[in-house]
Amino acid sequence: MKLKLPTPPLPTALQPKPKRPGESEKVGPVDQAKEAGISAVDWVDERTSLSGGLRWMMFRKIPKGTNWFYTLGSATLFAFLSQAVTGVVLAMYYDPSATRAYESTRYLTNEVFLGEFVRGMHRWGSSVMVILIFLHMGRVFFFGAYKYPRELNWIIGVVLLILTMTMSFTGYLLPFDQRSYWATIVGVNINGSAPFAGPFLSDFLRGGAEFGATTLSRFYAIHMLVVPGLLAALIGAHLYLVARLGTTAPPWLKANEPTEFSRERV
Amino acid sequence: MPDRRTPPKGKYTADRNIPGAFEGESVTRRRVMVLSAHGAGAVATMAFLLPALGFAAGSSVFERPQVRWQSIGKPEDFPDDVYVPKVITTVAGIGEVGKTTVFVRRYNPDIDSVKYQEFVVLTSRCMHLGCPVRYTEAAQRFICPCHGGVYDFEGKVDGGPPVRPLDRFYNRIRNGEVEVGPRYSVNGDLDRFPSYRDPAQDLDGIGQYLYPGRFSTPKQ
Hints:
The complex is a heterodimer.
Chain A: H1 29-48, H2 50-58, H3 72-90, H4 101-110, H5 115-142, H6 151-173, H7 178-192, H8 198-206, H9 213-245, H10 259-265
Helix pairs in contact in A: 3-5, 5-6, 6-7, 6-9, 7-8
Chain B: H1 29-62, E1 70-73, E2 84-89, E3 99-106, E4 119-123, E5 134-136, E6 141-143, E7 150-151, E8 157-159, E9 168-174, E10 177-186, E11 192-193, H2 207-210
Antiparallel strand pairs in B: 1-10, 2-3, 3-4, 5-6, 6-7, 7-8, 9-10, 10-11
């Protein structure tokens, strides 16, 4: 038998006071603030109809059996957002010139308040993002969520994976220490081993036949401007398709037969 | 394909009862306006896109840097049975990043199978993926720390992943000093390829056709 204890009574100070007869509704500052917020949101919504899109995005029907594995995509999105924010603030101290890059990295790591922490978030966060992408990709693969009609979203996801790898490759050079330098030499030469296009691709990446003054600024521009824009745009397309097509049920759930068919069989 | 409900009445717009059609006009003015607006948009886009792409890729792919000759010492500094490491500058103005080590010795008829010049100047760039090789005197070999590439005394591949012998440098004697010039590549038979290739680009067999010489080779 379930034991039911009586709830202790609220102290009188916290009990809501009953309204006196004849007294009008009292409008407190909280109600006023609430009213102002609602009217501001209404003002925007009346001119944009944003709420319909938000409802469409946020309040979707999801299949039975949806579980924690379905959060890996959002986790990757938050890793990307964290990289974007920490990257923007790191750029406030970093100097992408061949003679100043190492020194400015040392300064922002050792001297700037929270520098080591923010740089650490960006540095380790990049690995976290790659790991999360592969886990997300594995979830989609093993749940069969890449099948019709979601093939295009798989393709966009693969492009996002490649762009993330480009970010990792170009970002690795920026501290400009020995490890960065030699890893970039090796990486560019791997690109150069592609038949026919390779020699020109490696020239393009280096900004010439030798690793030179423009290599670092070139990598910085790709890392800061080219790829993040593409990534953000394609993440938008990826999310739009997720909302448009819906998510799949896990493969171990059988689809329920419509009731009229099961009744006929009886 | 279902049949069109009304068969086309002819190629002139006047035959199709389009208001304001001119005599002998075969394309509607609306269509002309749409095409010219799209064309103008395409021209405007190309007007900034093509220069931007050319700016990003042009000089890095097509520009040919000037040849630099750098003195590395007197001819008698270099014996013919051991390599002397020397540091040269390949890119000026970026400090230590623009420097590279070369290994220099005199031509030795007992060891060398080909003679190009009086001195043999080998690069320290491994032909696997570009790590720096080190000459190990005890083994008389060049050894790469990254992935275990090994080259013999002549610079030919002796083991590991490298795809071709170590690159060499042109050299000459001016005013009693040995000078080092541009880099060149060699294939497995030590045939000379003046347009030097990046590491990992094979120059034997089909490789010499898969990896064309680049436009950015220094001017001779």
